[in-house]
């Protein structure tokens, strides 16, 4: 069959589904593994930063692939549920806040990144919806990618951290975006590990923790520990026993981290064992206080851009500042109802890869939005897309 016909003919739904899956897998490769390779290559001076930080370019390349995948795959006929409508409302409020920012001449240093993020939310939602979570061949390729990225990170470590965080190569405009690299690595891990056998999963968790330690992104490091715990909780037959052992394990690890503080390279992550004297934690607490002050001045409509670029609250209050009370409530309800829905409605799929990915991402988002991240954090749309993917599979539709 000619390629043009193959991409438009729905007479063979299995072939259309297969093409859609691989288009989504290609978009995944462009956005995440390629991003990590690009960032490291730029910092090592292997290539020039022709594509800037690459994120915007990756989104722009991936969007047509995902739109094509959405068009050619057989469409499900299940209507959106409350969670999906809440996500639509959230995106509308997000877009309206950008319009308000344009009207009031908010600095482009705030507006431009948020506008790019809005587009990225659409792309990442489509990725979560269309990616073949748990499909055998895609998982095998994702596992090869996982190992390749691990080797890339380990082989480019200096001083206990990936390319020495803070190092700027000649010709590079800025240092490695270690938080985005960690996020990309987490997504690559979720594509590879949940369908694997138990020993492979546990080995993967250990290797991922090592990689994230070397990357040095503390929020993502903690989020991944929660992600791994969520997956194994869902897989466990004796859940109460698993929780008890998990609590003991966390206490032991915190004690070890505190004892080893300052003795290992890359001890920024080990500093999580004592946040009372951590400069980053103190700075974030100050930004939260400023957010409350901004909210008190405009509690209902918000005060978009009422902070210096980068000085936003690193928690869910950032949504209240930018989008007002309605935006804050919408985001809180979105996470609450999504979590409740998978536990109450879709628990029959608790050991399927798409359920594991959805549950793990939702738990990570709740943790990070409570304590560490701006409302534009890019794991959120992937989680909601994976949730929509789960709904369609539960209804008997392939993705």
From TrEMBL:
Q: Which stretch is the leader sequence?
A: none
Q: Where are the transmembrane segments?
A: 20-38, 50-70, 82-104, 116-134, 140-169, 176-196, 202-228, 240-261, 325-346, 353-372
Key words of the record = Membrane, Transmembrane, Transmembrane helix
UniProt-recorded name of the protein: Putative membrane protein 87
Q: What species does this protein belong to?
A: Achromobacter xylosoxidans (strain A8)
